[in-house]
Every structure is written in C-alpha cells, then in structure tokens.
C-alpha cells in the first residue's frame, strides 16, 4: 500500500523511551505507513537543552528547544517528558488545535485525565496513553474496548517493576528490604530516590487510571489509598512463604455493590494465584469481569523498547483514524460512582503478634476478635526468635477494614500482647 | 448519555454462547447504549427449529427460522452458528448489504477470513471475530491494534481448553491419555467425538487466525502443520516432568528471517515458562515482539459467558463506529510472506529411545547425531521398566526439522536401538 496521506509527528522529550520512539519512527517508516494508511513524518524532537539532551544516533536537525512551534505544526504529538509541567500545557495546546496526543505520562493522566479527555472530545482530537500503565502490556485498550460489553468487578495489578523486583528478591533470597533496595539501585531497577516507587505513589497513579477506565468514571491519584512496601520485613516475607503466600504490592480497583474502592498496598496472595508467579521487574494485571471471568495480562512494565512499543501502538491507532478521515467513535460516558472511604472496604487481615508464652493468651485474643465481630480463619503459634514469648500469626475472614483495624488496636492493648509485629491484607482468595 | 441512534441487531444461533449474548443484549441494554452511543435493539434470533432450539428464558417472539429476512433488516449481525455452511453465506449476505458482522466462527475465519475481510472493506462494513480465538481473552485486538507499531516475531498459544485439561490432568495425576479423556468427557470438558480437539484441528484454525493478524498476511488452517496429543503417553509426561518440563499443545506462529511458519503440536516447555502454569481448561497466548518483549494473555478459553463477553466487546466496538457515523480506519495491508515448509522450521527435539544395555551404545548414537550435524544438549539414561535394556532421553540443540527427523530415522535403524519411544519438540527456551 502506498500511503496517500502524510501526518506530521512531533515528539516531546528524548529520554529512554523517546529515543526509541524516534528510532522506530525513522527506521520503520515503511511498515508504519502500511499499517496506518498514512506516512508518519517525524518533524522534530523538543528537548530542554539541545546540547545535553540530543541523542547522537538521531539526526541533529530534528532537535529543537521550541516545543510550541513544533506542536503548532503537528497532526500528532507524542509527549514523553513526564511530570505535570510543562507537559500538561503542551498537551492542552495540542488538543486545542485538534492535534491528537499520545502520552505515557501517568502522573498527568491520573491527575488531569478527565479534563484532558474532555478537551480532546471538544476539539475532535484523540488522546491515548497505553504506555502510562504497565509499559508494553496492552491493558488500557482491552479494558476500555474489549471488555466494553462486560462489567469489570475488580482489577488487581502488579504495576510497579521496582517494588516487584524488591519483593521477589526478598522472597527468593530472604534478604531484608534495605539490602535488596541497595542492590536494586545498583542494578538500575530502583532510582537513587526510590520514594515514588517504594512508597506506592507510582502504583497509585496507575490504579487511578485503571479504575477510571474499568468503571467508566474519574478517579484521581489523590483518591487512592496508598501504602508502600518500606515496612515489609524479611520476617513477614518468610512467614508468608511458610503459609503458602507471597507478598506483592497490588494496585486494586474494585467495584463492589456498596461502591468503588481504589487502593495500593502490599498484600499476601496465594502461591497458586496467577499473580504470584510474576517475577522480577515484570508487571501483570489481573482482571475479574462478570462474564469474562478471570483474565491476566503479563509483560515488561518498563524500559525504553517495551514502553516505546505501547506508544507506537497508540500512534498507529491515531494515524489509522486520521488516515481514514474518520470521525471519532464515542467513548463511554462518565458514570457517577460512589467512591468508598478506605475504612469501608472489605478485606481480610493477616496479623503478626508477639505474645507472652502463658496459658489463656490465645483465648483472650480470640475473645477480642469475637467481640468485634471479626472471625478468624486460621491461627498459628511459634516460639519467638528471641525466646521471650510466642509469635502468633492470625488470618481473618473477610470483614470491613474499620472493624479489622479496631480489632488490631484492641488486641494490641491486651496485657498478654507484647507487640503487633505486622498487619497485612490478603487478596485474591 | 441518551443514545440518539438505534441499531438493529440480528443474532444467528442460540446455543451456549448465543443465549448469553441475547441475555446480555436484553438485560444490559442501558449500559450498552451508554458505552456504544447507540441503543442496541435485538430484532430477532435465527435458529433452524424454533420448537427445539428456543431458549425458554428469552422472549418467544424473538425466534425465527428465517435468517435471511432478519439479516436483510439488520445493522449488525452476530453469527454464532459455527461451521462453514450456512454461516458463511449469511455473513457474506450481511456484509454485501453493508451490515457489520461479529462472529466467533474460527473454522470459517481460518478458511475464508481474507475473502470476508475483503468483502467487508468493499462494502464499508466491519467484521470482527475476537471470540474465535481463546474465548474471553482479548487477544486479536491487542495483536492487530496495540502491537501494530511493533514487529511480532512469535506467538505461542494454549488455545484449546480440552487438550490443556487432558495434558494438565495427565501431568498432575500420572494417568494415561485414554483414561483422562474419558474423565474429561464425563465432566463435559471433551466432546463425545473429541477428534477436532485432541487431533489439534481446533488449535490449527486458531493458529491460522493468529498468524494472519500477527504477520499482516493470510494463513488458512490447511497451511498449518498439525499434530494432536493422542500419542502423548503417561511415560512421556513423567519423563518430561522429571527433566523439569511440562507438555502442552501449542499453536505456534513464528516469523523467522527465512519466513513464516505456523504449526500445532504437543511440545515440552520449561516449568518456569509462563505458559507452563496454565492449568485445567484455561487458555493463554504468549507473544514475543521486537520492542515489547514477552507478553502473555491469560483467561477462560471457552464457555457461554466468557465467549459472550468477547462477542459483546466486538458488538460495542462496531456500534461505537456506527454511532459516530465514522468512516472505518484502515486495517493493515496484506503482506506477502514466505510460508515455510514444515521441514524448514527450526526447533529442538526431545527423543526417547529404548536401547540395548551394552557398551558403546551411547557412542554409536552420538556419532549418528554428529554425522547429521545435530548437536546434543543433554542425554540421560535409565534402566528400562521391563529391565530388558536402557531408556535414553536426548535433548538436542536447535536445528532444522528435516535434519532432526533424518537423524531420528538413522538412530532408529541402529542395531543397538530397540525402538524410538517418543519424539517431541521443545519450545520456549
């Protein structure tokens, strides 16, 4: 096929992903034109500093610091700068001109996705961001399109490679969090400042995007209850392993009868669950839908080439629509949903206690659970490592977060209890 | 959103999947209209015999035996009859009218997909068939759209639930093929006549569809080299397990430098490979792409509700385009590819031999491999169960199918070799 149309493509940013996107646009032009029905002409790459940010393998004349001029001549803008500013202004500028935008900017979409989608619709432009969640894994389009005739009830994702690498290494080597983090930093799997990853904030942005698409609504990242993995100890990991579980940082979006809940926390899942076998820095998203049942999408969650693949899939999709001169199909209308407070969610707790080694302790603890209406699924007792008492592990049945938390506080106040050594939630049962 | 447009939907067939599709169209009309931008009006359900095929939970007045009249008034036709005739005629009739078609008919698409796609394009109609491969799993759209900016190099799918159920049961219980097949039939996982499944023909149709989409070309099921699982013995399964492998029936579409190969056969894969953990009747498709790397899509491969979910995803996609009055985006142009003969593919063999227990046997066998240019990765020897000789297992490095086959023939002709007890290929290394 000879492409009749030509589309001007502006690239903003030339980091790990941007450089690969530029390479693919240049090297693979013929195949992309075949698949899009339009030639894709890379008109320029905007960077802040052409001297320091220019990729020497790409033609020097493509680089510019004038992003606005580039945007103002483009049919398609690919935003790979990251961060809220100036990325958000550039995207808005493009959409207002009717240019279509592809971005991998999870923070921006999680914060302003609804407004940007609205802006795109008003100006007949397309806005796509498959690369914002789970890198190369096609997950947003399957959720938004393939499952559009179904009802998604729950999404559970391992969507942060750094934390999965750390938890997996803790699980397989028995090492402590700090040691594994240092190793991950040395290997390039974790940033020098790892807060966004290990604090769960990166996963929270992705959870917000997943929830918005899965439930046809708008959830922003500040509405996501977020707990990171910094408190997960080698003892927790070992005890979980002994009980047949593995600890994963999960981004969860759930549509229960009472309402929608979106949350990120380290969670125990059974070894037999498909998410349990996601190793290293890989990502996976597990989806439960009323008719489809259980689905899982697995792949590389980060990296220049994988993320560039997701960006290019969006570029071809946008180009196909533009080449066909096609009007845009409707997206789903935004539905009002009842966003639950975190205290209202239903989950089950896995509680570690250090208790006195004396008669009647188990009975007094069990009594507290009973008083709060929380039922115990299993209880196991071992001698404490220091020999001063017993280590107790309690797995509850499902109950309201608020009741579970109150129960833990009441148990902690018992004379027979030295300390609460860990509290973690269990998912996927 | 109040849907302004209304689309007439004709359903052909009311079996397990059709009945669920009708139920969803009726029960979920409001949500579907919201998501599509058009009301979806089920105008009728065509069956061969309204007395015997009518689903009593659906309104009697919807049922008709006059499929053609239904088709001639429809905007959207959902074909769930299966088989080539009359399904193919109905679909062609609909497309020629410009009506869009959704089908789950893998046999028809694998045989006539190119012609039907052509017909759809000529008449400005849409043809979608996500449900034809791997039931509920969104796999065709990710391959055709999400990965359109990448180059897929290999697709390996567990796409037949019956054979995966059988092989998984053989692996976990040690039972023989015949016994597990009988059990699968009793449980409803296998048909009374299981030929299409255990012979690999169902998987071959799906392999043809996957290859066509992944490589932007046309492959029909008669071009797929197909071997079933009827020869897989309990001994094979046990020996594979001992060596750290599991046997799966794989549908493989590969784009190597020399050309494209599409094939179905039982294959050993390492226990650590993501496909190895696909249990029971579940399906999964593993995709390797140049930039995206390794991806896997996992879920229910059959059943009324899961398959209906895939059908309804296509229905909403079609309706969105129609509601927006949008022209159709271009698909990829068909690329000519060099379809390799099966003898030209590259794979590695896992060979079971029963040999005489005498000095020099290993040397004579190894010499035959050397003469044929096939190198051995590993060799292990055990006493035969009947004590009359040794059982030898040889894993080769990758080589051409033709060379591997010739080598096996030459080894079989050696005096020291009683028999070749099994030959199986190894994938995913």
UniProtKB/TrEMBL annotation, chains A, B:
Protein name from the UniProt record: Homoserine dehydrogenase
Catalyzed reactions per annotation: L-homoserine + NADP(+) = L-aspartate 4-semialdehyde + NADPH + H(+); L-homoserine + NAD(+) = L-aspartate 4-semialdehyde + NADH + H(+)
Pathway field: Amino-acid biosynthesis; L-methionine biosynthesis via de novo pathway; L-homoserine from L-aspartate: step 3/3; Amino-acid biosynthesis; L-threonine biosynthesis; L-threonine from L-aspartate: step 3/5
Domain ACT stretches: 350-425
SUPFAM superfamilies linked: ACT-like, Glyceraldehyde-3-phosphate dehydrogenase-like, C-terminal domain, NAD(P)-binding Rossmann-fold domains
EC number: 1.1.1.3
Keyword Amino-acid biosynthesis: yes
InterPro entries: ACT-like_dom_sf, ACT_dom, Asp/hSer_DH_NAD-bd, HDH, HDH_cat, HDH_CS, NAD(P)-bd_dom_sf
Database matches in PANTHER family: HOMOSERINE DEHYDROGENASE
Pfam families linked: ACT, Homoserine_dh, NAD_binding_3
Annotated positions binding L-homoserine: 191
An example Gene Ontology molecular-function term: NADP binding
UniProt keyword annotations, A-Z: Amino-acid biosynthesis, Methionine biosynthesis, NADP, Oxidoreductase, Sodium, Threonine biosynthesis
Family: Belongs to the homoserine dehydrogenase family.
Role played: Catalyzes the conversion of L-aspartate-beta-semialdehyde (L-Asa) to L-homoserine (L-Hse), the third step in the biosynthesis of threonine and methionine from aspartate.
Entry annotated with the keyword NAD: no
BP-aspect Gene Ontology terms: methionine biosynthetic process; threonine biosynthetic process
